[in-house]
Design a protein that fits this description.
Elements: E1 2-5, H1 20-28, E2 32-36, H2 47-52, E3 56-58, H3 61-67, E4 70-72, H4 79-84, E5 90-93, H5 101-110, E6 113-116, H6 131-148, E7 170-174, H7 178-189, E8 193-198, H8 201-211, E9 216-219, H9 222-231, E10 234-237, H10 252-257, E11 263-266, E12 287-290, E13 293-296, H11 306-327, H12 329-335, H13 337-340, E14 343-346, E15 349-350, H14 353-359, H15 366-369
Parallel strand pairs: 1-2, 1-4, 2-3, 4-5, 5-6, 7-8, 7-10, 8-9, 10-11, 11-13
Antiparallel strand pairs: 6-14, 12-13, 14-15
Helix pairs in contact: 6-7, 11-12
Length: 370
């Protein structure tokens, strides 16, 4: 199969769909790989590294989209990229379609087979291609929030860990999954006073046992969220409903009553955000203020540590990329129900129910679509 990797064009996005190591694996399996020139240069992967791995260097993204049978990316295709997709082509990347009607309509129009990293599953009910970026984003959230809490950045001027004689910052993490657990781990390590909230008693038991009393584990209700948000210096939104738009758990009213200069970090922004006042921001302009509360809502948080993120992501995506290349999309999707769950759009049909529910499309099951 002819596989193409264009350079990412989203604001301050330096990750790349394939590392030289992953490229070599695909080449060793008999496939041809094209890499847009300097696609990985921002994180230390030069053209020469890809050539040594067996790839061809291509001057333009347009040539890659025009000729590749499978396009491997990191972030969702931008409008100009969507226009270059074509019928029968495989797109393998993060999509996050539920809060993005424009991208969804463009992918439907393209006729391409679009497989979303974030909805591929595993035998344990997990999301193995989302997990590594959730780990990265979770660990970045308190780090980013701590910076924004500094007075010069618009925050309250509170040190996350405090100092002897001065209380540490109060941090509330909403959601006890991979993002929430990793955010909590970093916030605890930085010395903060941390509360984590979830609606699964079993998960709260696990977290309570894991943190051995260093973290308050609270059942998540509207009243509990309000109480803890109003008492916090930082709130981290870490909720996820796979493939669906995130629920709005912090209302505008609660935000308006939080401490002036407090910080909210919305890691769910890729799925529309879990705070009513959230809107996507970029690494170039990461924050804005609503009612005195500083919002950090960068939609590609792992891009801040792009080299680490790229290697972690490739560890997870490569086996499925090999299956798609070795078998072709139809056979690979039918052979592996977990990869099949990643199919969101195929030849003009929407094949992921949560996206249909969010955007009003008719749901077409995978077997019927293929």
């Amino acid at each position: 199969m002819l596989i193409g990797v264009p350079k990412e064009i989203k604001n301050h996005e330096y990750r790349v769909g394939l590392t030289p190591s992953s490229t070599r694996e695909l080449v060793n399996n008999g496939h041809e790989v094209m890499i847009e020139t300097q696609a990985g240069a921002g994180i230390g992967f030069d053209n020469e590294d890809y050539v040594a791995a067996g790839a061809r260097i291509i001057d333009t993204a347009a040539e890659i989209f025009a000729t590749a049978e499978m396009v491997i990316k990191v972030k969702e295709p931008q409008p100009d990229e969507c226009k270059m997709l074509r019928e029968g082509q495989i797109l393998y990347t993060y999509l996050h379609l539920a809060p993005d009607p424009e991208q969804t309509a463009a992918l439907i129009k393209s006729g391409a087979t679009c497989i979303a990293y974030e909805t591929v599953t595993d035998a344990n009910g997990g999301l193995p291609l989302l997990a590594p970026m959730s780990e990265v984003a979770g660990r970045l959230a308190p780090q980013a929030g701590a910076h924004v809490l500094e007075k010069a950045q618009g925050g309250r001027g509170v040190l996350l860990g405090g100092v002897p004689g001065v209380e540490p910052a109060k941090v509330t993490v909403i959601g006890g999954g991979i993002v929430g657990h990793n955010a909590t781990s970093l916030a605890v390590g930085m010395g903060a006073d941390v509360t984590i909230m979830d609606r699964s008693i079993e998960r709260l038991r696990w977290l309570d046992n894991h943190y051995q009393g260093r973290v308050k584990c609270v059942y998540s209700t509207a009243a509990a969220i309000e109480e803890h948000a109003l008492a916090s210096d930082m709130v981290i939104g870490a909720v996820l409903i796979p493939g669906a738009a995130a629920p709005k758990l912090l209302t505008r009213d609660i935000i308006s009553r939080m401490k002036p200069g407090s910080v909210v970090v919305d890691v769910a922004i890729d799925q529309g955000g879990c705070f009513e006042t959230s809107k996507a921001t970029t690494h170039a302009d990461p924050t804005y203020v609503v009612d005195g509360v500083v919002h950090y809502c960068v939609a590609n948080m792992p891009g801040a540590v792009a080299r680490t993120s790229t290697m972690a992501l490739n560890n997870a995506t490569l086996p499925f990329a090999l299956a798609l290349a070795n078998k072709g999309a139809k056979q690979a999707l039918l052979d592996d129900e977990h990869l099949g769950n990643g199919l969101n759009v195929h030849q003009g049909k929407v094949t992921y129910k949560a996206v249909c529910d969010a955007l009003g499309y008719e749901y077409v099951p995978l077997a019927e679509a293929l």
